[in-house]
Amino acid sequence: MNTLVLASGSPRRLQLLESFGYACTVIKSTIEETMDETMSPEHIAQELALSKAQDVQRTLDEPRVILAADTLVSQNGRLFGKPGTIDEARACLQLFSGSVHQVTTGVAICDGSQQQLFYQTTDVEFWRLTEEDIERYISTKEPYDKAGGYGIQGMGGLFVKSIKGDYYTVVGLPIAAVYRHLKDFGCLPLVSVDN
Ligand SMILES: Cc1cn([C@H]2C[C@H](O)[C@@H](COP(=O)(O)OP(=O)(O)OP(=O)(O)O)O2)c(=O)[nH]c1=O
């Protein structure tokens, strides 16, 4: 059975794949993540995922199944990556307060002979946040390595009123869709017989 090369430095993506039984080798891509903001979030997320996968593919001596992903947040046509400063983190959370935004994760899987690109988008609705909610949250430092400046799987989950779509897409990898695509590459999770 084929094991997976995860072309991502995201601890969440590794944890998710491992918790669903995939054996992974991590090789982080070193591409500069630039985006053409005139393109749709779906297009950008898939293109960035593909660039990450291809970057790692170039470093390998033999063909392996490589998976890469990219997560972007958008609202009313505006794109939000990872906040670089406290002001950017605050601005994201103020905009998301009491409203709905979209989280899109694009995924690229390739093995040298075939490549598959897909994405999923989930709507996330936030409760109305107070200034204190936002300041306390920013002080956790949780926003900085996450698109849109929050983590639904962490303290950011306290702000989420509802979601429409796949939860794992928000965390950074739509695992059920990934499972379906990985089967085409002969890559299956290990199944424990203990439980
Ligand atoms: C919205 C949201 C994003 N995120 C994370 C998922 C991604 O790790 C990150 C978006 O940045 P990405 O550029 O997609 O990924 P990354 O830089 O962490 O890792 P790599 O490029 O090496 O693959 O935001 C959460 O963990 N929880 C959330 O609720």
From TrEMBL:
Site (described: Important for substrate specificity): R12, T71, Q153
Active site residues per record: D70 (proton acceptor)
E.C. code: 3.6.1.9
Keyword terms of this UniProt record: Cytoplasm, Hydrolase, Nucleotide metabolism
Pfam families: Maf
Top enzyme class: hydrolase
Major subcellular site: cytoplasm
Catalyses which reaction(s): UTP + H2O = UMP + diphosphate + H(+); dTTP + H2O = dTMP + diphosphate + H(+)
Family per similarity comment: Belongs to the Maf family. YhdE subfamily.
Protein name as annotated: dTTP/UTP pyrophosphatase
Species for this entry: Aureibacillus halotolerans
